[in-house]
Design goal:
364 residues, alpha/beta, TIM Barrel, 5-stranded parallel β-sheet, 6% strand, disordered C terminus
Length: 364
């Protein structure tokens, strides 16, 4: 099919064409080798699609995936601008070229942020992300990154500062979770820069993930401080948004919005490309949710799978509850992860191809 041309149709009418997938050709895979990559930390034995690493600006536009722009080209820029592919999500991590190169383990990491500057110059809406790794890009490096954003990329729509995740399947010995004091330092840095951004740009721009406030034992900022919850799906403002929605202080749900491209879990029964509109019988939903007081005597239902149960295990354990059970009544959490670890000397089963990661770059 030749690109270009016009198709006339009535407003709201279906296009009349179906596509077999979101992309017409192959997914552009990621050739970075980040030590904090969550794909490399997945357990073996999951469905193969979970181990696919992408660095594809098209999936950033369609589904909100983050791209480092290390595989971005001049032709990609032309397509983004001419077709209006906006917004995009870009992983920044550090504005210092040497630090970013070491974090991505890719020499193109030093120069690929030039494409971020080009996207902003062409009026493309871009949301940025900084994954903070203790001892790598926190402290003075984080301060330098927030300074670099103000100097070089002040047009960013938002910048979320999120902590790395470390699973038991990580083989990176240098990785570790944040301590409480490190989380406090990140929150302090972000809030200090928010005040400066607000004074110079008229908006807060940078936001710390909810997890940092939980680790630091700090209260979440008020809903107004999140300026519309632009990075809600990245774990920024989720807790405060949930509170405002349950208390009826917000008219619309926060998160995935309906549209031509939308997540399946936000779609009507007719399919995720079906038109979204209020029911002519009931009109828009305005019912408020009545919250009941939590009680250990009241059962709590959590619908999840075995992997999700292992993720929830520390959270449930912190509440003093070990009563999650499968449909057969058997305990769902305790000791289950042992069945998924590879046997000593055995093959771990399907998983990310670690051979393609390559050795780390020498320190600068």
């Amino acid at each position: 099919m030749r690109r270009g041309g016009l198709l006339a149709k009535d407003a709201g009418a279906a296009l009349g064409a179906e596509v077999h997938s979101a992309l017409f050709d192959q997914v552009r895979t990621c050739d970075n080798h980040c030590e904090f990559c969550f794909i490399h930390q997945l357990p073996p034995g999951l469905r193969p699609s979970l181990y696919q690493k992408d660095d594809d600006y098209r999936l950033s536009f369609l589904y909100g995936n983050f791209t480092t722009l290390t595989r971005f080209t001049e032709a990609d820029l032309e397509r983004v601008v001419t077709e209006g592919l906006s917004p995009l999500n870009v992983s920044i991590h550090a504005t210092d070229p040497e630090v970013r190169t070491r974090m991505l383990r890719n020499r193109r990491g030093a120069t690929s942020l030039r494409w971020l500057r080009a996207l902003l110059d062409h009026g493309v809406t871009v949301h940025g992300q900084v994954v903070v790794c203790p001892g790598v890009n926190d402290g003075e490096v984080l301060e330098d990154t927030l300074t670099g954003v103000l100097d070089e990329y002040p047009e960013l729509a938002s910048l979320c500062v999120v902590p790395l995740g470390v699973s038991r399947w990580s083989d990176e010995s240098a990785l570790r979770p944040h301590t409480g004091s490190e989380a406090e330092a990140v929150v302090d840095a972000v809030e200090d820069w928010q005040a400066l951004y607000l004074r110079l740009l008229g908006r807060r721009l940078a936001f710390a993930a909810d997890e940092y406030y939980l680790l630091a034992g700090r209260a979440f900022p008020p809903a107004e401080a999140y300026e519309g919850f632009a990075m809600h799906e990245d774990g920024v403002g989720m807790a405060r948004a949930l509170e405002t929605e349950f208390l009826g202080r917000r008219e619309e749900a926060t998160g995935t919005r309906p549209g031509f491209f939308a997540w399946v879990d936000g779609a009507p029964a007719e399919g995720y490309r079906a038109p979204r509109e209020a029911s002519p019988m009931t009109g828009p939903t305005t019912t408020r949710v009545a919250l009941s007081t939590p009680s250990r005597r009241r059962p709590v239902g959590i619908l999840t799978g075995s992997y999700g149960a292992r993720v929830l295990e520390p959270l449930v354990g912190a509440l003093g509850r070990g009563d999650l059970r499968d449909p057969g009544g058997e305990p769902l959490l305790r000791g289950q992860h042992r069945r998924h670890r590879p046997a000593r000397g055995g093959r771990p089963g399907p998983g990310p191809d670690r051979r393609a990661r390559g050795p780390p770059l020498p320190p600068a």
